[in-house]
Amino acid sequence: MTDLLQARQLLADAITVEIDVVPDNARIGHFERWDSLVHMRLLLSVEKRIGRQLDPDEAVRVECLSDIAALLKNNNPATL
Amino acid sequence: MPGSVAIETARFRLRNLKPSDASERWRGWARDPAVMHPLNNPARDMSLDYLARYASSFDGKNRHLIGVFEKATGAHIGFFMVEIDPVHRLATFNVVIGDKDWWGKRVVNESRAALLDYFFERRSIEKACGSPLSRNFPAVLNYKEQGWRHEGTLRGHRVSAIDGSRLDQYQFGLLREEWRLLRKAKNND
């Protein structure tokens, strides 16, 4: 599963919808279902996946799905 | 009250809170860790008298305590604290949505948009500021979604009221001209 697909799945889980509902280019302010509670669930699930808390600079930079994918990629144990 | 706020949005009424707005509902928010901890406040019991005195401590000129009321039912669901620096024409925003049934329903940005219009256009404010804790992810989403800029991260800037650890805090800002452009862009959509 690619990092972007994993990111889509995490966002879909945070919204509690099927992955097909989440577009590849989902972005804060443009994808209506990405609301404040979804954002909290999403970032907590990313932290669970990567096994550590996001530092403040990482967390505040998250604006779109590709940002989540990059976090997953950069914290993949296989690539560290 | 000088400069009283009385604004309507699509779903809400916003107005300065009065001592008579102190309620069991408001007391319940103060006792709820889920409401208070993201703001770095301990959950605690506040008497109605305490809340009434707190409401009356805002002068409605440079310090505003503005309630958010659902139009359909009149229910009080939260409030903004807005502090004005008249010299530098700054407005610093804090917000509490105490009614958890309204979390995730864009109450903050609908209400804050109306307050930004009011303070920028009617009170000569030129910059709005907000300082959420870095772990307050919902608040951060709201600032970013509304177009505020992340201006910096203040490392270990607060002592946690919960466990004494040091907490990071963000600084968000929004200039009046930026807000006008955002409004214009939205109206052109």
Give keywords.
heterodimer; A: 80 residues; mainly alpha; 4 helices; 55% helix; B: alpha+beta; 31% strand
Question: Would you mind describing this structure in some detail?
Answer:
The complex is a heterodimer of chains A (80) and B (189). Helices cover 55% and strands 0% of the residues of chain A. Chain A is mostly helical and 80 residues long. Chain A is globular, with a radius of gyration of 12 Å. Chain A starts with a helix and ends in a 6-residue tail after the last helix. Chain B contains six helices and eight strands. Chain B has helices spanning 24-30, 33-36, 48-56, 107-122, 137-146, 176-188, and strands at 6-8, 12-16, 63-70, 76-85, 90-97, 127-130, 149-159, 166-175. Chain B starts with 5 loop residues before the first strand and ends with a helix.
SSE layout and pairings?
The complex is a heterodimer of chains A (80) and B (189).
Chain A: H1 3-15, H2 36-50, H3 56-61, H4 65-74
Helix pairs in contact in A: 1-2, 1-4
Chain B: E1 6-8, E2 12-16, H1 24-30, H2 33-36, H3 48-56, E3 63-70, E4 76-85, E5 90-97, H4 107-122, E6 127-130, H5 137-146, E7 149-159, E8 166-175, H6 176-188
Parallel strand pairs in B: 5-6
Antiparallel strand pairs in B: 1-2, 2-3, 3-4, 4-5, 6-8, 7-8
Query: What share of residues of chain B is helical?
Result: 25-40%
What's the total count of β strands of chain A? 0
Helical content class of chain A: 55-70%
- What is the strand arrangement across the widest sheet of chain B? 1-2-3-4-5-6-8-7
Q: How far is it from the N-terminal to the C-terminal residue of chain B, by CA?
A: 38 Å
Category by helix and strand content of chain A: mainly alpha
